[in-house]
Write a structure and sequence with these properties.
By secondary structure, this protein is an alpha/beta fold. It has helices at about 15-30, 70-80, 95-105, 105-115, 130-145, 170-175, 190-205, 210, 220-240; strands spanning about 5, 35-40, 55, 60, 65, 85-90, 115-125, 150-155, 160, 165, 180-185. The chain has a single domain, classed as 3-Layer(aba) Sandwich (Rossmann fold). The strands form 3 sheets. Strands 3-2-6-1-7-8-11 form a 7-stranded parallel β-sheet, with helices on both faces. The chain is globular.
Length: about 240
């Protein structure tokens, strides 16, 4: 069977493409066959990583989203070889259309029947987006109550808290905890050093492996190496490769 990773969140600019790229790079470094799909019609950031095997799926018909174009996505998934992984980065503007398509067409049931494992990845952030990202998580959990969800905690914009409550005390956490396959913490490091290095790396759409072995200043490479080691450790703990 192949493992299908949908990266979904209704709030834009919270790090979905970052999560997709980190996940892809981790799986690739484990020696696994990985394919990437970018369905974002506005910002195809994931497809901007030229070192990764990512294809853009055009889902637009003129100025409108054509849900029938998601049929092509299903065809691509169903053609994946056994033991492979496919990472799908979906844009904020297509969050509800894709969720609606998957639900109305019983697409996840079909993938399960065909022997494919499915994981729904979503991002929770702090700052002003915390309410919106919590809402996106709730939409996923309620729309697909039988699916496993991987929650990525991204504190780049601040602590993930509402009304003085930490994420573990959120209503959405308590109500849907049984659906969470794992929770992954994106490392939070000093913005003036690690943050600047990461921003530069992401703007170049460069992989960690390439940057670490480049001619960048030695301490920049050291910080990127440290960050990537921490990411890899977090993803390894989630045991996403051994999906059952």
């Amino acid at each position: 069977m192949s493992t299908v990773h949908f990266v979904l969140q209704g709030k834009g600019g919270v790090g979905k493409s970052l999560i997709a790229s980190l996940l892809y790079q981790y799986l690739h470094q484990q020696g696994l066959a990985v394919t990437g799909i970018d369905t974002d019609p506005v910002n195809a950031t994931f497809a901007g990583y030229k070192e990764l095997s990512v294809q853009v799926l055009n889902i637009m018909e003129g100025d409108d989203i054509d849900q029938r174009r998601f049929d092509s996505l299903m065809e691509i998934i169903l053609q994946q070889p056994e033991e492979s992984h496919i990472v799908i980065d979906n844009g904020a503007s297509t969050f509800l259309p894709l969720c609606s398509y998957l639900k109305d067409n019983a697409a996840l049931d079909l993938l399960d029947q065909e022997g494919h494992a499915v994981l729904l990845h979503t991002v929770m952030t702090g700052g002003q987006a915390v309410v919106d990202t919590a809402s996106g998580l709730k939409t996923l959990a309620t729309s697909f109550p039988s699916s496993s969800i991987v929650v990525w905690l991204n504190r780049y914009f601040g602590e993930i808290a509402m009304n003085g409550k930490a994420f573990e005390d959120f209503k959405v956490y308590k109500e849907h905890l049984s659906q969470f396959r794992s929770i992954i913490e994106v490392p939070s490091r000093k913005q003036s050093t690690f943050g600047k290095d990461l921003e530069s790396l992401l703007s170049r759409r460069e992989t960690f492996e390439t940057a670490i072995h480049s001619n960048l200043p030695v301490m920049v490479r050291q910080r990127l190496k440290t960050f990537w080691a921490e990411v890899s450790q977090e993803v390894a703990k989630a045991q996403l490769v051994e999906v059952v």
